[in-house]
Amino acid sequence: xxxxxxxxxxxxxxVDPVEVSLxxxxxxxxxxxxxxxxxxxxxxxxxxxxxGTFDLPVTKATRSHHFSIxxxxxxxxxxxxxxRRLNRLRxxxxxxxxxxxxxxxxxxxxx
Length: 111
Known about the structure:
- It is built from 6 helices and 3 strands.
- The chain is α+β, with helices and mostly antiparallel strands.
- It has a single domain, classed as Arc Repressor Mutant, subunit A.
């Protein structure tokens, strides 16, 4: 099982927000499902929300796609713990690269 977990963890690629273009950041934030994920993460402590615990109106495959987009935009960091993939909003890092952008998009009323 350890090799399967290791292989799964290797599929995680995290991008530093300073390496993300404004267009990629805006595209990631444009989707209401992704904004919902980010709002949820902002309301919880780091590493307390597993991917499967979000109440989203999408299939498991689509959910995975949304998390991948958020990772590629430098908005979230993920790590595997057993069978669960835990998430952290990278707010300090993202705010340093794009000051005010998260506040303007996820700190507002829900869509």
